[in-house]
Amino acid sequence: ARGGPRPLVVGAKPFTEQYVLSRIVAGVLERATGLPATTLDSLGSTVVFDGLRSGEIDAYVDYVGTLRAVILGRTDVPRDRAAATREVREALAREGIAVAAELGFENTYVVALPRAQAEALGLEQIGDLARHAPGWTVGGDYELFHRPEWQAVVATYGLRFASERSMDPSLLFEATRSGEVQVILGYSTDGRLDAYELVPLVDDRAALPPYDALVLAGPRLVHEYPAALQALQALAGRIDAAQMRRLNAAVDRDGLAPAAVAAGFLRELDARP
Ligand code: PBE
Q: Is there an atom of ligand 1 within 6 Å of 147 CB?
C-alpha cells in the first residue's frame, strides 16, 4: 500500500471559471502543505457541495446566491449583500465548512441576447422580453432550469418561453449565432459576452440574488491543515470581475489550458504580495 496522506482534492463545476479557480486553489494548497492536490472537474452544484461536506473534496469555489438557493433552499432574494454572505458563512460553519476567502467578484446569471436584436426591438430590461418570449427559445446551462433562481426570474417578469434548452455553457454563445436560441442565461464573468456582441438585459426588479465567489474549505483542511486555510486567505479580494473575465477569456478566447492560466495568476500573485 502507498503510505502517507491522500492527495488533497479540489472540486470544480463544469465551466471555465471553475476549471481556472480550482487550479489556482490546488496550487495554493500544494505549496502550503507539500501534498499533491488534484482537481475533480465537472461536478454539479449539489454533488460538489455534498463531496465537500462528506470530506471527499477538500475545497472548491462556490457563489453566495447558489449556496443560498441550492444548499439552504432559500428562494427569497436578500436585500443586503453582506448579510447574505454572513448568513451563508454561518450556515456553512454549522456543517464544519469554512469560508477561506471572498475572492472579490460575483458571477451572476445574465439574461443576454444579440445586440442587434436587442436594439431593433428596443429591449433593455428583462421584463421587456415578456412580449417576445412565447415565440423564443431560451438557452441555459444544465442546472439552470431546475434551479429556484430561474423560477424567480420567470415569475418576477412574467416570462413564458416557447421552449427551454439546456446545453454545455461553452455552447450557449454559438447557439445565439446559429439561431438555435434567441436568448441565453450566460454568466456575467464570461470572457465572450463582448466578442459575441451579446447585450445583458437589466434585472431591474432584482429577481436574482448576489453571487459573490467564495473559496470553501472542508473539514479536513479546517482541522488538519490550518496552514493551508491560512494560505487560501491570501486570495481574499485578489480577483475582481474584470480580472476574472480576463482569466476566463484566456481559456475560452485564446485557447490556453486552465492550468496554464492558473499558474500565470499565481506567479503574478507572488510578484505583488
Ligand atoms: N452562477 C453563475 C452559477 C454558474 C455561473 C455562479 C450563478 C453557479 O455555479 O452557481
A: no
Mean pLDDT of 155-184: 96
Asked if ipTM goes beyond 0.90, one says yes
Mutate which of 43, 211, 215, 216 for ligand 1? The one with the most ligand atoms within 8 Å of its CB, which is: 211
Give the CATH number of domain 109-200; options: 2.60.40.10, 3.40.50.1100, 3.40.190.120, 3.40.30.10: 3.40.190.120
Annotated domain spans of the chain: 8-107+210-271, 109-200
pLDDT higher than threshold 60 for residue 1? no
Give per-residue pLDDT as tens, 28-84: 999 999 999 999 999 999 999 999 999 999 999 999 999 999 888 888 888 899 999
Cell triple for 123 = 429591449
Provide the terminal-to-terminal Cα distance of the chain, rounded to the nearest Å: 40
Atom of ligand 1 nearest to the CA of 147: 10
CATH fold of 8-107+210-271:
D-Maltodextrin-Binding Protein; domain 2 (3.40.190)
Q: Which of 21, 48, 66 to mutate to test the pocket of ligand 1 (most atoms within 8 A of CB)?
A: 66
Q: Across residues 107-115, what is the average pLDDT?
A: 97
Sequence letter at residue 131: R
DSSP-based three-state secondary structure for 146: helix
